What does this fold into?
Amino acid sequence: MNTSDAAPVSGGPRPVSSMVRPHLKDLVPYVPILPTDVLSREGGIAPEAIIKLDGNENPYGPSPKVRAALERFDAYHIYPDPNQGTLRSKLAEYVGVSPASIITGNGSDEIIDLLVRMFLEPGDTVVNCGPTFGMYPFVTQVCGAALAEVARRPDFSLDVDAVLSVLARPASKLIFLASPNNPTGNPLAPRELHAVLATGAIVVVDEAYQEFSSAPSYAGEVAQHENLVVLRTFSKWAGLAGLRVGYGIMAPQLAHLMDQIKPPYNVNVAGLVAAEASLDDRGYILGRVGRIIEERAHLFARLRVAGFLEPIASEANFILCRVRGKDAGDVKQKLERQGIFIKHIDTPLLPNALRFSVGKPEHTAAIAAALGSV
It folds into this structure.
């Protein structure tokens, strides 16, 4: 039959926009950082002149053995292992847990998304303790769950009593806690974690910056607390931010369920090759992590003498600064004109602040000189 002769649908077709889930129309998007080539193109700055300290990336990049392994690999045309068996075995040895407790993802962001989708139903609530990583509230809102904000104390520690009060509500099911916290750099204290775990809620501890911290990891406690999930990533310590490999450590029954609901080929072969090679060369990479930790102390000292910055002690590869007597956005723009890109933060919980990723010694020197001109 000629389609022109078909009877029109009563009332005409519905607009596509009317079929979008209503809560997504007012969603506040997550604001990502931009790569060097985009910053170069938009700012009119040569790529080699850019000092990129806005994304907490590793300035030294991946291990040379990662580059060699990617060059040797010859099966890019074949789908990757959907179970990521080799990587999970290596991670189990690295972290000190059973392979059955590990799930790998396309960055830890994917594990965050899978956790929300695995546990939450309409009407359930996620507890968020800001200022913290913006992906937690973003994913919660995308999935249509409710968000309960519990502000941190002035020293950025948890307001444990307030958290426990919110978690006592029947709808409160899951809480995200970063350790060290982003953007403040402070670790989660054991007493804080254990108080929250005792509520029975799903407690997700995001240890994206653990390798830079002197505080102990909580991965070893997963075996004693089935409601504890620990997240880790290769983006920061291993210099693989562009390849997107993260992992979660959780009770085996939860890992098994997440394995069933995740996309089968969620970690691509390049990511698998790079992550496995990184673990094989962890001594070299952790040596570079040590250099970043040393440079963190030098950067802190340079920021403190600027006169208008109040740096906050950090256990991560970045330093948060409150800005006094100047507009933080204006400072950021002036640094950008000199090729230095940092993170501007201006929220009700953290107004007029800047976050500096720790770079190489020459980057610290450039920051010091630029701040002097500001």
Notes: Residues 254 and 306 are 48 Å apart (CA to CA). The two ends are 73 Å apart (CA to CA). The longest strand covers residues 172-178.
